């Protein structure tokens, strides 16, 4: 069975280590803060100017003055700090963020990412994604494996305008966990009940499968 958006975020949360400073992009990545282990210390950063972002608030507890980069209401953990965009992007460009988690429309087997514009459609703007991918050394992408028409979003080459080049290291989709090594997608884990053949069929780019592929565990 394909993973839900919450399960994608839950699997990515396992990549977050104690002491990390983590930037969460809009979309599925914002859910990651809900699933990080309680026994580790992590600082979540949002590019609109907060360090120490917590999970989403319960209904009725929302504070309209506390929002993330996607304009969703959030919580702030004890000790959180607030600052302007100049300071926020100083952190990002100065490589003070250990892990960046982004959504994507397309990812190529070379590690290129397209996540900011679909030609012919209105968009709010590119946001901070280009700064994030240019500065981050550890990028994980959270995305659907295929689009609504069933076409692969893991490609040999991206067809949409690029956000960054050769920057993605790992991808977690609703079907699988993959790593990009030497210009190819390497299959690491598969969603429970999803076969390797289904993943191969849904992946347009070159896919390397070695040995037994374990199911994703939570």
TrEMBL record:
Keyword Transferase: yes
Keyword line: Transferase
Entry-linked InterPro entries: 3-oxoacid_CoA-transf_B, CoA_trans_fam_I, CoA_transf_AS, NagB/RpiA_transferase-like
SMART domains the UniProt entry points to: CoA_trans (SM00882)
Example GO molecular function: CoA-transferase activity
The keyword Transferase is assigned to this record: yes
NCBIfam families found in the cross-reference section: pcaJ_scoB_fam
PANTHER family attached to this UniProt entry: KETOACID-COENZYME A TRANSFERASE (PTHR13707), SUCCINYL-COA:3-KETOACID COENZYME A TRANSFERASE SUBUNIT B-RELATED (PTHR13707:SF57)
Family named by the database record: Belongs to the 3-oxoacid CoA-transferase subunit B family.
UniProt name for this protein: CoA transferase subunit B
Organism, as annotated: Aequorivita antarctica
